[in-house]
Structures are given as structure tokens and as C-alpha cells.
Specification:
α2 links the parallel β1 and β2. The protein starts with 9 loop residues before the first helix and ends with a helix. Strands 1, 2, 3, 4, 5, 6, 7, 8, 9 and 10 form a ten-stranded mixed β-sheet that branches. The protein has twelve helices and ten strands.
Length: 329
């Protein structure tokens, strides 16, 4: 006679049901990951002048984005700097850019928010006043009556230089012979003697300044004495801080001496029109590539996950926020 099979006990049934629920939850959790395609398509990254840190940083970041986001084709655009970069974002000509916090704030004050959003705070730009080594200029106030390159019209360099000259008690229209050229022309003109000094705002070291010092004796003029007067200009100057260029920024120029100056933060910027998944991926690549890029662009070593979220005057893009929440949890 056949033996009756035992009926499953209540505990066996509960275990099987729990396993089924767990499996269903796991499949539900993984489904979006499988069904959501990786970012793809073409994006434009507007950087800066060819001899500046923005440009070199953009070239290296493009390389690592190709590894992390293989479906995304990154096109680099050279520019005159922060102001033009912001205009390109707003117009839709570019998808991502680097811009200084003061330039972003100035644009917002004049044109409104325009959908600008930040992905990360990157590194600081340092104001650099460069003169021939035998120049009598020891402070910005000594520039009165001299031929001074102040950056191209509408550039971030021109923006901050005007404010520094004001802090030094000088008017760029009346008190100096203002030469409105960029870093591509400044070193050559200083070497040839067609200008007496030039202002530049960039990461350390800036290649154009470093290259100039190889065959022409130059000196960096301190700007630290302008910090208080600069801050007295009010809200527009709130993004500038007192800083020191370390002695090894330009070893052949500084000869072991640090130089007091003014610094402003750079932000990685996009707009609220950019896809959150793409923005999350780009933000992740920026943070993850810090050490690799920093080996070739010293300023990139200062990109820090702990400070990257401090992107005033812009709020974080939804995709960037998603990335920072994921690494925090």
C-alpha cells in the first residue's frame, strides 16, 4: 500500500513565501538598473584658452569620460573663459562648462537664473599679476600710467581685474593704458615690451606663465593688500578670498617665496535642461578621475568630495545631487 506524502508544515510554507517575496523585491530593485540605458549621444564642453588650465583639464576629463561613459561623445570648445562659457550654456551651444563663481553670480544678477545648475565645486583660480623681474611695480597701485593687459572684453579675467583695480584706487579707463588681450598674447607682449604687466586668473600653475618664465625673467606681484578693499565693494566681491600661491607654484619665478593674492572658486556648470542620468555620470567621472587628472594638472588635485557640494551661487543639478547621495549612503 502506498504511503501518503506528508503535508508541508506551516513553517515550510512561510519560508517559501518569504523567499518568493525576497526574490520579487530583488527583481523589482534590479529592473530599473537593467532597463535604464547608459547615457549616450553628443555633448559639448566649453573650456577656455588653449594655454590655460581650463583647456588642459577639459582634454583630460574627456579622456576619462570616454572610459566611464563610452556612449557619450564629448566635443571640446575653446573659449575666452568664464563669461563666454556661461553664455554658451544658456544659449544651448554647450552642455557643460567650467566657470568661476563670481562670473556666474554676475551673470545671474544681470540676466536672472537662466536655468543654470552646478555639478561640483572644482578648484580655485588664483589672480596673478605678472611683471618683468626688474619692474618697479610692487603692488597694483604702482600700475598707474602703465600699459597693462587686463583680459579680453567679457572674460572672467577682465571681470575680476576691474574689481582689483578699483580696490587699488585705479580706474581702468583713466589711470592705466588698458590692453584688452588674453593669455594667448600676454606673454609675448610682455617679452617684447609692448605691455608693462598683465593680469591673469587661473589654476596653478598656468602653462603660459610657466613657459614665459623659461626664457624671460618675470616676477609675481602680491595682491594680498587688496583683500579688505575688495570686500568693501559688497555683494559682488563675496566670492573672493585671501589666498597664497605656494612657493612651488612657479619655482623659477618665486625662488622659494609664497605670494599673497586673491582666489575664486571654479564650478562645473550645466543647466536644468541636461539629462539627470548624464549629469550624474559626468559628476561621478569628475570625482573619480581627480587623482589621474591631478597627476598632470596640479589644480585638479584640489577637487574634493567633501567640498564639491558647496557650489554657491548655484544649486546642484538633480543628477549631481543623486550622485552625492549615492556615495554618502
Amino acid at each position: 500500500m502506498a504511503t501518503a506524502r506528508p503535508h508541508p508544515g506551516r513553517r515550510t510554507v512561510q519560508v517559501a513565501a518569504a523567499a518568493a517575496v525576497a526574490l520579487a523585491l530583488l527583481l523589482w530593485w534590479l529592473a530599473p538598473l537593467r532597463s535604464s540605458p547608459d547615457p549616450h549621444g553628443r555633448v559639448s564642453f566649453t573650456t577656455g584658452v588653449s594655454s590655460g588650465v581650463y583647456s588642459r583639464y577639459g582634454e583630460l576629463l574627456k579622456r576619462y569620460l570616454a572610459e566611464d561613459l563610452p556612449g557619450v561623445d564629448v566635443r571640446l570648445l575653446s573659449s575666452e573663459g568664464s563669461v563666454q562659457n556661461i553664455e554658451r550654456l544658456v544659449s544651448g551651444e554647450a552642455t557643460f562648462t567650467i566657470a568661476t563663481a563670481d562670473a556666474v553670480a554676475a551673470y545671474r544678477d544681470e540676466h536672472g537664473e537662466a536655468g543654470l545648475r552646478a555639478c561640483a565645486r572644482l578648484y580655485d583660480d588664483y589672480m596673478q599679476l605678472v611683471v618683468p623681474a626688474d619692474s618697479p611695480v610692487r603692488s597694483a597701485s604702482d600700475l598707474r600710467g602703465l600699459r597693462v593687459a587686463i583680459g579680453q572684453p567679457g572674460s572672467g579675467v577682465s571681470l575680476i581685474t576691474g574689481r582689483l583695480l578699483e580696490a587699488a584706487g585705479l580706474d581702468e579707463e583713466r589711470d592705466i593704458d588698458a590692453v584688452r588681450v588674453g593669455i594667448a598674447e600676454m606673454p609675448r607682449m610682455l617679452r617684447e615690451g609692448t605691455i608693462d604687466a598683465f593680469f591673469w586668473s587661473g589654476g596653478l600653475p598656468t602653462g603660459a606663465v610657466k613657459d614665459l618664465a623659461k626664457d624671460f625673467d618675470v616676477r609675481l606681484v602680491q595682491l594680498g593688500d587688496l583683500v579688505d578693499a575688495l570686500h568693501e565693494q559688497g555683494r559682488k566681491a563675496q566670492y573672493y578670498r585671501a589666498a597664497v600661491m605656494p612657493a612651488d607654484a612657479y619655482p623659477s619665478v618665486q625662488r622659494g617665496e609664497p605670494v599673497k593674492t586673491v582666489a575664486v572658486a571654479n564650478l562645473l556648470v550645466t543647466t536644468d535642461r541636461t539629462d539627470p542620468q548624464l549629469t550624474e555620470g559626468v559628476t561621478r567621472a569628475v570625482i573619480n578621475s581627480r587623482d589621474r587628472i591631478g597627476g598632470q594638472v596640479h589644480a585638479a588635485q584640489l577637487v574634493d568630495l567633501r567640498t564639491a557640494i558647496y557650489t554657491d551661487p548655484l544649486q546642484l543639478h538633480e543628477g549631481a545631487s543623486r550622485y552625492y547621495r549615492s556615495v554618502k549612503s
